[in-house]
């Protein structure tokens, strides 16, 4: 989101092929190269347990197959990281900083190619993917500024099996920028591969981004090895709109809080509490604007909503809407599958963004994370009432408030039990600001100076300059 290293003159291990530029149209990319990355090169896992298909969300087409890594491959990746850490940790902070800056420069240079691959891989609009790529290089530049004074880490990254492709480009860029071979490795797989990583005795920190149920398992496994964990988990965040808000800003804020990346954003403000005086005007405008969102081929410039990540996930989201209707909610717009006119997109995972009215706090659509383009509108009367309702959740990732009364805005965000709060905007996440959750949305922080703390160990060294006095 709106998201959380010597200058080498030539790529030392130039294994990348600019594959996205060759196939930058939806429906044309074919996976040809291995997706694991170890010791500075793409490799096939030595013990690939089985292969899985990777689908293009925009078309539903199989782009290729890749192998899930077994325990032996995970161990080799860990050994590779350990060897690279010895080299990396001997470098000065300034040297590491220069490598990070070089990686940032390469990402800027290859922005369009990387954004295209991201879009092909995850279905979001190219418009949004470009923002993500910009945040990536900004993140590297920000931390390059801090790197001069601190130690670096080696990392093994396991992406979701639904989005295995684009991260390998990042691994290649790090190598090209001068990171020691093995410092950043990629292992592909699902739950079993993730478990091998968490349980490996030489992995000293686990950082997990995903759902609460998986987060619980990650924490249990990490506890057995006394490993520190960062958990970036799900949410069901409140967005509170007071009647004195600038209506147009509040509507824009609600759209930004719900419909980026087809609603697949952890910190989305999906419980939209609207003060009763403006409920009708706000709802009318939100529905009108939602109906105008351009859905379709995510690689087209004017598309603002692409495809959801997978067919099962699309069905799950639609299931939440069916259940909401059964429980008494009213579909004010959208909520059904969408089939674009372009025949190559007919098997893609599209749906029309949905606004639900007549919602109550006890409905499933209001209590559970849907992770799709579904906004629930809930009327309220007083500040005291809305705060109690907004905090009545096991989640605590984010929250937002729209009002012209700045004292009230600060009072409300101070009372919200959430790790990130927005006043008069939503889903803006500059890299300087720490991001993370309260309650079951997790703990630890990504981004900002605070993020460093969760990837560092303190060592206290006490030096005696004189003789040792003893009481014995
Ligand atoms: N807080 C944040 O920063 C943040 C950001 C993005 C997404 N999310 C959350 O992520 C969720 C959606 O992502 P998802 O569907 O990929 O989540 P998920 O929990 O299903 O899977 C996440 C990852 O965990 C792996 N995994 C699954 N079972 C495992 C196990 N037993 N041991 C080890 N690894 C295992 C999966 O292969 C995948 O890579 C949502 O809840 C969303 O809110 C949070």
Notes on the protein architecture:
- One of its GO terms (molecular function) is oxidoreductase activity, acting on the aldehyde or oxo group of donors, NAD or NADP as acceptor.
- The chain is of the alpha/beta class.
- It is built from 15 helices and 16 strands.
- The chain has two domains: 6-233, Aldehyde Dehydrogenase, Chain A, domain 1; 238-432, Aldehyde Dehydrogenase, Chain A, domain 2 (3-Layer(aba) Sandwich).
- The strands form five sheets. It has a seven-stranded mixed β-sheet, sandwiched between helices. Strands 7-8-16 form a three-stranded mixed β-sheet, covered by helices on one side.
- Helix 3 runs antiparallel to helix 5 (126-147) and helix 3 (93-109) crosses helix 6.
- The N and C termini lie far apart (60 Å).
- The model is unreliable at 1-22 (pLDDT under 50).
- It binds nicotinamide-adenine-dinucleotide.
Secondary structure: elements and pairs:
Elements: H1 19-22, E1 36-38, E2 41-43, E3 51-55, E4 62-67, H2 71-90, H3 93-109, H4 111-122, H5 126-147, E5 155-157, H6 167-177, E6 184-186, H7 191-199, E7 206-209, H8 212-224, E8 229-232, E9 238-241, H9 247-258, E10 271-275, H10 279-291, H11 311-326, E11 330-333, E12 354-357, H12 364-367, E13 374-380, H13 383-391, E14 398-402, H14 406-415, E15 420-423, E16 442-443, H15 448-453
Parallel strand pairs: 5-6, 7-8, 9-10, 9-14, 10-13, 12-13, 14-15
Antiparallel strand pairs: 1-2, 3-4, 8-16, 11-12
The structure holds nicotinamide-adenine-dinucleotide.
Residues 158, 160-161, 190-191, 194-195, 198, 209-211, 214, 217-218, 232-235, 266, 369, 371, 397, 437, 442 line the site of nicotinamide-adenine-dinucleotide.
Organism: Chelonia mydas (Green sea-turtle)
Active site: 232
Domain Aldehyde dehydrogenase: 51-148, 150-461
């Amino acid at each position: 989101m709106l998201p959380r290293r010597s200058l080498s003159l030539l790529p030392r291990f130039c294994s990348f092929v600019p594959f996205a530029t060759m196939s930058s149209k939806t429906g044309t990319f074919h996976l040809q190269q291995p997706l694991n990355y170890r010791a500075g090169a793409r490799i096939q896992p030595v013990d690939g347990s089985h292969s899985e298909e990777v689908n293009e969300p925009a078309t539903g087409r199989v782009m290729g197959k890749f192998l899930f890594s077994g325990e032996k491959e995970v161990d080799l990746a860990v050994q590779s990281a350990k060897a690279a850490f010895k080299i990396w940790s001997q470098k000065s902070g300034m040297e590491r900083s220069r490598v990070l800056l070089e990686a940032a420069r390469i990402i800027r240079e290859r922005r369009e190619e990387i954004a295209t691959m991201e879009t092909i891989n995850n279905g979001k609009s190219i418009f949004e993917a470009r923002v993500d790529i910009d945040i990536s290089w900004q993140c590297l530049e920000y931390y390059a500024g801090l790197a001069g004074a601190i130690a670096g880490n080696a990392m093994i990254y396991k992406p979701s099996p639904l989005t295995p492709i684009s991260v390998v480009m990042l691994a290649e860029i790090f190598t090209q920028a001068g990171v020691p071979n093995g410092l950043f490795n990629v292992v592909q797989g699902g739950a079993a591969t993730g478990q091998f990583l968490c349980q490996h005795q030489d992995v000293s920190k686990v950082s997990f981004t995903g759902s609460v149920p998986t987060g619980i398992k990650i924490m249990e496994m990490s506890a057995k090895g006394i490993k520190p964990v960062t958990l970036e988990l799900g949410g069901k965040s409140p967005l509170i709109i007071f009647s004195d808000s600038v209506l147009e800003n509040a509507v824009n804020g609600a759209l930004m809080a719900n419909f980026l990346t087809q609603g697949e954003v952890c910190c989305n403000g999906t419980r939209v509490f609207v003060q009763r005086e403006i409920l009708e005007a706000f709802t009318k405008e939100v529905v009108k604007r939602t109906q105008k969102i351009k859905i379709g081929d995510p690689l087209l410039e004017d598309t603002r909503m692409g495809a959801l990540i997978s067919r099962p996930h699309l069905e799950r989201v639609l299931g939440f809407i069916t259940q909401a209707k059964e429980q008494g909610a009213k579909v004010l717009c959208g909520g059904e599958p969408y089939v674009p006119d372009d025949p190559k997109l007919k098997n893609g995972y599209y749906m029309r963004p949905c606004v639900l009215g007549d919602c109550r706090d006890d409905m499933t659509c209001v209590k559970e994370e849907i992770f799709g383009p579904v906004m629930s509108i809930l009327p309220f009367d007083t500040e005291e009432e809305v705060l109690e309702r907004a905090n009545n959740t096991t989640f605590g990732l984010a929250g937002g408030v729209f009002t012209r009364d700045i004292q009230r805005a600060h009072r409300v965000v101070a009372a919200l039990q959430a790790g990130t709060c927005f006043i008069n905007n939503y889903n803006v996440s500059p890299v300087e600001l720490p991001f993370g959750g309260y309650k079951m949305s997790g703990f630890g922080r990504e981004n900002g100076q605070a993020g460093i703390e969760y990837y560092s160990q303190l060592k206290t060294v006490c030096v005696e300059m004189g003789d040792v006095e003893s009481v014995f």
